[in-house]
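Annotated sample (chain length 281).
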Amino acid sequence: MTTLTGHLDTALWLAGMGLPVLPLREGKGPMGNCRACRKNACGGRPNMKTPGPCTCTAPCHAWAAATTDPHILTSTAWAPAWRQAAAVAYHPGGTGLTVVDLDNADAIGWARQNLPTTRTVPSTRGEHWIYLGTVTSTNALRPGVDIKSLMSYARWLGPGTGTMAPLPDVVRALAVKEPTARPASSASTVSAPAGGGQCPHRSPAYLERGIAMAEQRIEEAPDGIHRTVFRMFLAVLSAHGRCGCLTETHIGRLFTAAQTRGESLRHCEDAWTNARTQLGM
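Output written by the structure step:
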């Protein structure tokens, strides 16, 4: 068993109440995957709908590592993560909850006009409104509003005040991905630029390093995941988008890294399209 830290004490207390928990590093991001799980080499858990670590027992795969098992939380495998932890997070969907994350005063004003009163927790820039019930997690539903429930995590900021209300239909409606004509498959519908001429790169290793670096930056982004995904897509396209060496396989790897961090397919496709537009492709 590790020496209990303040964050681990909090995690054990929450786990005892049935909240699946995990450590967060500085910047509110999850711990990076261990070497065996890097780039989902172990098979990963990013598409699972129940919490729990992968077979390596380390706090890998972000929200999917969340657990209520005190033996896992205090295990040797988790000890380095707790020593680095800057906060504790929980998986709302894993305990039947939804967090409406309101990131600024305008978002709070919108919620007060459109959502029923429920338990409220002050956050760094706004408030978390917590409801009973689960829904698909979705980022940037409207300015300053995210929904964190299934396959996501929320930072523990305290118990809050007020009585939790049932998840309202307006939140369920917001979580429906638009447009409805988009295929249900999680596979990307974007294509690689056609390119032209001979690839000027000396070796395929140059492209591989670029893709691997972009994956790593996305996986390890402490916050601002939308901006990080767009910047990495832009960087890859600016270096490899015009020569024809970029393939759908490479794009798939970038999209997988982004979706593992909670980005929706729609946001990935929008970021890819915006990056191509900015570069005139």
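Annotation: Residues 118 and 164 are 5 Å apart (CA to CA).
Annotation: The radius of gyration is 20 Å.
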